[in-house]
Every structure is written in structure tokens, then in C-alpha cells.
């Protein structure tokens, strides 16, 4: 699994699953079929701490301020966020003194949020959770889920829970990687156990429409390789915006409702895989030093789909202390702290955290100045 970085004593007990992907012909939802148990993915040793990225912290600060200005009035103050991680978003509401609650299934990152003074409960959000929150706190003005909704297998229980929890004029805000961008960039690394859905307006509208909710606005951004922010309300509660209607129509142009679009995507993924392997094997034959940069969950998809080993990538540099000293899922490539990278720069660094290129490139200027090159492992396998 993508975030299952492990120590050598766990190699024999490593969990594997078949990452089969399918698209529903009726609602056009793209999803991973074989899903591990949620407790195997989200637990007390969860490896991802969102707040370690300054770029993402700033992104969610701006988002939070926008939401506070537009959707949280002075006389109605209650915000709920699910999958709040280490409080990267809710910390902004907490600082503003707005009553809030985070629901986070991974105990270690939930505790990191509490350490910041954020009100967080550990658990999964569903109908029962929504009923409990409503009984104890009342209904919510604002329901937030950023990079979370594509992690949840029982999406119907979540949607039903949102319908229970929201005030009549409440708003749900969701932000996730966008299907249209994934297809365009051939960023198949967006797919792994925790990313079991890649949403579009069409598919998300169908899922939540069954529970009396509808999308009325959207915003696009380039984070995580292309994200869509969706704004939902009760059906008929708000007038659809022009940008929502334009993007909704554009999904027909993108072919998101046609089977041949996904057949073509599969072929493009196979071509990208073959190009990456060929390039890395050429560098190996030339005696070039190649490492990885960013032990992301997405890196596990690329490494295992392409059959990469330590013969291709010597190690992966990562700033997250909980990952350092461990090994990547499947291929068991060692994860090392950044000083290993900076003390002896390689010829090439496969940028698994390619969606954070600007932030990383600004931080690692000396690598490029020393003659090193970044390799983007998706799409056309670019180098910079």
C-alpha cells in the first residue's frame, strides 16, 4: 500500500493487493476495485503529515480565510472537517476562535492536530458519526473535506452523513485530484489504495445527488497535479455558478463519459511506464547515479507498476522523520534523510513529489547548480 513504509522485520508480513481500476458505465466514477480494510491504511502510524509542506499550508490558509469570509457568519459558528490530518486547515479556524471539530481516523496525526489546540476526534466519518456530532454540537454551517473524499470506500454513508449534519443553508467544500487532469497528464500515480476514487463533476454529482446534495460551484488549482474544489449544498439551495456550468459541459468534450477515453489512458500509462524503465536502465548502463526524491504514497504506484528496484534507484530522500530509516512498499528501496542527498548529489533524481516541483526546486538549487537533473516519472518523462 502507498503509505505502508516499513522496517526490515516487517518484510515477510507485507500486505499486497491487486490494484484493479474500473469506470462505472452509469455514473462515470473511476475507482480502484480491490480495497484494503480502512484500518490497514489509516492507523496510529500513518506516515503523511500535511503540514510539513509550506506551500500546502499557505494554500489551505488562503482557502480557510475565503471560507470564513463567505460561509461562516457571526451568528452561526460551527465547522466540521473530516480527514483533517494534522490540522493544516482547521488551525486557521481555531486561531479565529470559530467553534470547530475535526474527524481524523489516524491517531498519530490526530494527536498532532490536538497539540496545536484543535478540537479533533479519532474515527471514521459516516451516518453514525454525523448523528453523534449533531446531538453533541448541533448542525454544521460548513463541512470540509480536502484530499479526503477519494480515500473513503463507503461514499454513500459519508454523503448521507453530510446530509444529516449540514444546516439547511450549510455548504460542503471538497477538494481532490481531478479526473480530467489525471487523464491529461497521464498521472497514473494518483491511483493507489488510499486514492480509491478520482472524482469529476459528473461522478461526484451522481454520488451526492442520491442524498439530496448538489454541486453549485467549482474552483480549479494546480496543487497535487491538478485539483478541483467542489462546493455543494442541498438541492435547489443555491444558484449554479457560470464556471460550474462551463466545466460541467467541458467534461463531455474531455470524453469523461466515453469508454474509449479510458482505454486510451491505459495505453498511455503503459507507454509512460516503458519510457521510464528504458531511461533508467540506460542511465544504469552508463554508470549514472539515480535516486528518488519524495517518498510519497504515489511513488509506490510508480515503483511497483514499473518494476523498479534498487538497481534503478539507490534510495529515496524524504524530509518526513517517520519515513526515514524505513523502506518503500514492495520494492524495499531505502528512505533516507535529506542530508544523504545534499552531501553527495546524484546525476539524476526521480521526482516522485513532482506536484511540489516549484517548492522543491527552490529549496534544492544547489542540486541543479551541481549539474543534477530532475526526472518527472509520469507522462512524457521530462527532465529539468
Number of strands: 15
CATH homologous group name of the largest domain: Vaccinia Virus protein VP39
What is the level 1 CATH name of the largest domain? Alpha Beta
Number of helices: 14
Low-confidence stretches: none
* Annotated CATH topology of the largest domain: Rossmann fold
Q: Look at the structure and give the mean pLDDT.
A: 90
The helix/strand series, from N terminus to C terminus, equals: EEHHEHEHEHEHEHEHEEHHEHEEHEHHE
What best-fitting shape do the alpha-carbon axes yield? globular
Strand order of the largest sheet: 5-4-3-6-7-10-9
In CATH, the architecture of the largest domain is 3-Layer(aba) Sandwich
What is the SS-derived class? Answer: alpha/beta
Helix content: 25-40%
Hey, roughly how much beta strand do the residues contain? 15-25%
End-to-end C-alpha gap:
29 Å
Q: What key phrases describe this protein's structure?
A:
384 residues, alpha/beta, single chain, 14 helices, Rossmann fold, 5-stranded parallel beta sheet, 37% helix
Secondary-structure map with pairings?
Layout: E1 21-23, E2 30-32, H1 38-41, H2 54-71, E3 79-82, H3 90-95, E4 100-104, H4 107-114, E5 120-122, H5 127-137, E6 140-146, H6 155-165, E7 166-177, H7 179-185, E8 197-198, H8 201-209, E9 213-221, E10 227-234, H9 242-253, H10 259-285, E11 290-293, H11 297-306, E12 316-317, E13 335-336, H12 338-343, E14 348-351, H13 357-363, H14 365-369, E15 373-375
Parallel strand pairs: 3-4, 3-6, 4-5, 6-7, 11-12, 11-14, 12-13, 14-15
Antiparallel strand pairs: 1-2, 2-8, 7-10, 9-10
Please, could you describe this protein's structure?
- With 384 residues, this protein is an alpha/beta fold.
- The chain folds into two domains: 8-257, Vaccinia Virus protein VP39 (Rossmann fold); 277-375, Rossmann fold (3-Layer(aba) Sandwich).
- Helix content is 37%, strand content 18%.
- It contains 14 helices and 15 strands.
- It has helices at 38-41, 54-71, 90-95, 107-114, 127-137, 155-165, 179-185, 201-209, 242-253, 259-285, 297-306, 338-343, 357-363, 365-369, and strands at 21-23, 30-32, 79-82, 100-104, 120-122, 140-146, 166-177, 197-198, 213-221, 227-234, 290-293, 316-317, 335-336, 348-351, 373-375.
- The strands form three sheets. It has a seven-stranded mixed beta sheet, with helices on both faces. A five-stranded parallel beta sheet has the order 13-12-11-14-15.
- The chain is globular, with a radius of gyration of 21 Å.
- It starts with 20 loop residues before the first strand and ends in a 9-residue tail after the last strand.
